[in-house]
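Weekly structure sync, notes
Attendees: PL (lead), two postdocs, one rotation student
Agenda item 3: pending single-chain targets
PL asked that the sequence for the first pending target be pasted directly into the notes so everyone works from the same version. It is reproduced below exactly as submitted, 124 residues in total.
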Amino acid sequence: MKILTVLLLVAHGSKNEKFNEMVLRVAMQLKRKAGKVYVGFLLGTPSVREAAEKAFAESDEVIVVPFFIAEGSHVVKDLKKEIEEVAKGSGKKVVFAKALGDHPLVVEALYQRFVEALRSSITS
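Predicted structure, written out during the meeting:
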């Protein structure tokens, strides 16, 4: 059965496996909210291209969600180029979500990390 819309979560990737594992944990949480989620890494496996190929093969529309703080060259150039090459000629729809940026929930999460560190500082 073909899925209509899927989420493609794209992250930078790292040689540090803990980073990649964190991204996969986030993807599992997103799956509970959004349904089918694919993960691709600019540096690592699965690559953005591999994940995009699977996502396009199994859906009519792919929503690309960059797991990046800002819309730097990786998001604006590298990521879009990879996805657009896979999508080209497929007749499938691709939509690019914004990077996290200054979204209010990012600000709140950063503040919460500050509070946690402050509390840790006081108790140590």
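Discussion points:
- The longest helix spans residues 104-123.
- The CA atoms of residues 71 and 77 lie 9 Å apart.
Action: rotation student to compare against the earlier draft before next sync.
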